[in-house]
Design a protein that fits this description.
With 532 residues, this protein is of the alpha+beta class. It is built from 17 helices and 18 strands. A hairpin with a 5-residue loop joins β9 and β10. The protein is globular, with a radius of gyration of 23 Å.
Length: 532
């Protein structure tokens, strides 16, 4: 990027920025992608890990939005068959729920049809059959329920974001995390951007014909620096999740859905050997959030009232917490929105183009809608006069079936799955293919050459030594938290004490950072202490 000349500078590497960079680079544009934190490290790392069409948006009759989200969900499921799986949402409707089961079933059937029948059909349950389907549910006040289908990410949201960053890089883009935009000035027909390496302090310049402002909750502040007026703006909603030991049966994965005491939906989402409870919806005035005591008390109270647990959940059961802000889109002419029904605001996206400044701004959005965002941003860049190649849709998706078949053939020949001895864990071949795609062949070769590469490096987490070497070489890891929280989900599923006491943690740091391992370890633990 130093003294570089690009067609497009993408500011912000959450899901919107990552898909924009992948789409543009995949169509022949020269692209620079920056983020002042890690890739997918702000809003995009705090999602529910769900790929869903917005069933709840039917309440407000947002049928075009639901249709678009369902289509995008179906495309993602088809493009990422090993990473995005269909999953049932079992909604238990008690006497405090706003809808009776029969009416909810009608809505679920309409949702299935709007989604072009891209999933299994919905089901209607009585109270007794709900208990049979999921014994953990407290059915004493339940009138019945429904199960509708959506999808979820098997790995974490940030890793999914990073897959688009890798796609952009493989198509020729320059991508850098921990690089912030200090200033940008329009000089003639180009932007001259001053950038700063957050880690080292180095400053340098790069130029671009156009800028894509994909800074999520910070888009308005960046546009304001340039005096750019937009039709839309962002308001903030805080959502939290609590990660606890698995609450539901492991016979098959299913999301449980309940209406809380405020008649808002919240979920119990499976995450391997853990359950994720959430999310809340709290109006706030800042993009910076944290889980507070009231948040914990509210969610624990709600879930304890709706599940039959041997012991009620307490704060001591919380393994990890997630707190993020949703950037919601509103029109500037709509007033201050202090009287708006907060929960009625959807996660739609809007894209605006300023022809005079050559800036494209992405407002709002959600993970499910990412392919639409990537395509629409490319259309707007073309309207600015930057030519793009025909969209072959090769900037997203998993490798071809033939490549997958060959990987599994080689894994079977070397008896890869016999390396695993841990109970209740997925097959090693499945895990490596899902996480790495074509790069999984390199892992097979590393394990063939040195059997120690096939050993788990941390007792409490499922990561092979070979995966760490691969991450060090290919995954642009600057800080230990980048790996522990975003390239993997170790920080989300393993308790802090187990991580701190893991004999393999130091080796993880040494593989990733070499001589800089000690500093990165100290930095990682200092950040954890500051969060606590």
């Amino acid at each position: 990027m130093r003294d570089g000349h690009f067609d497009v500078l993408v500011v912000g590497a959450g899901i919107n920025g990552a898909v924009s960079a992948a789409s543009l680079a995949g169509r022949g544009a020269t692209v620079a992608l920056i983020d002042r934190g890690d890739f997918g490290s702000f809003t995009s790392q705090e999602s529910s890990n769900l790929v869903w069409g917005g069933f709840k948006y039917l309440e407000n009759y947002e049928l075009p939005l639901v249709f678009g989200l369902c289509r995008s969900r179906n495309r993602l499921m088809k493009a990422y068959p090993d990473n995005i799986k269909e999953i049932g949402f079992l909604a238990a409707l008690d006497r405090g729920a706003p809808y009776p089961p029969w009416f909810a079933a009608l809505g679920a059937t309409a949702y299935w049809a709007i989604g072009l029948f891209g999933t299994k059909p919905p089901k209607l349950f009585g109270a007794e059959t709900i208990k049979e389907a999921e014994p953990a549910i407290n059915t004493r006040s339940v009138r019945g329920g429904i199960q509708y289908q959506d999808a979820y990410l098997i790995d974490n949201d940030s890793r999914f974001v990073f897959s688009f960053v890798r796609s952009a890089i493989e198509a020729g883009a320059a991508a850098a995390n921990y690089v912030e935009l200090v200033s940008a000035d329009r000089v003639g027909e180009r932007w001259v951007a001053r950038l700063r390496d957050v880690d080292s302090g180095e400053e340098f310049t790069t130029t671009a014909r156009a800028i894509v402002n994909a800074a999520g909750p910070f888009v308005d502040a960046i546009n304001g620096q340039w005096g750019l007026a937009t039709e839309h703006r962002i308001v903030y909603s805080k959502g939290i999740h609590l990660v606890v030991p698995r609450l539901t049966t492991t016979r098959h994965d299913r999301v449980l859905a309940f209406f809380d005491d405020t008649q808002r939906l919240f979920y119990v989402i499976p995450m391997g050997r853990r359950s994720v409870i959430g999310t809340t919806d709290t109006r706030i005035d800042t993009p910076f959030t944290e889980v507070d005591a009231d948040d914990r008390e509210f969610l624990l109270e709600q879930i304890n009232a709706r599940l039959d647990l041997a012991q009620p959940l307490t704060v001591a059961d919380i393994i990890a917490e997630r707190s993020g802000v949703r950037p919601l889109v509103v029109k500037r002419t709509g007033g201050d929105h202090t009287t708006t029904d907060w929960t009625s605001l959807s996660r739609k996206h809007e894209i605006e183009r300023d022809d005079d400044l050559s800036v494209v701004t992405v407002f709002g959005g959600k993970l499910t809608d990412c392919l639409n965002v990537g395509e629409e941003v490319a259309t707007e860049i073309e309207e600015l006069g930057i030519p793009l190649e025909r969209d072959l849709r090769n900037w997203y998706g998993e490798p071809a079936k033939a490549t997958r078949t060959e990987f599994y053939r080689q894994a079977k020949l070397m008896k890869l799955d016999r390396l695993r001895s841990k109970p209740d864990t997925e097959r090693l071949s499945d895990r490596l293919w899902r996480r790495y795609g074509r790069r999984a062949f390199d892992l097979l070769e590393a394990i063939r050459a040195d059997p120690k590469m096939g050993e788990d490096i941390m007792d409490s987490a499922d990561y092979l030594r070979a995966e760490l070497h691969n991450a060090a070489e290919h995954e642009l890891i600057v800080k230990l938290d980048d790996f522990m929280r975003r390239r993997s989900k170790i920080d989300l599923v393993v308790h802090d004490d187990a991580i701190r006491n893991s004999p393999g943690l130091r080796e993880v740091a040494e593989i990733l950072f070499g001589d800089d391992a000690e500093r990165r370890l100290d930095e990682y633990f200092a950040e954890k202490r500051s969060i606590v």
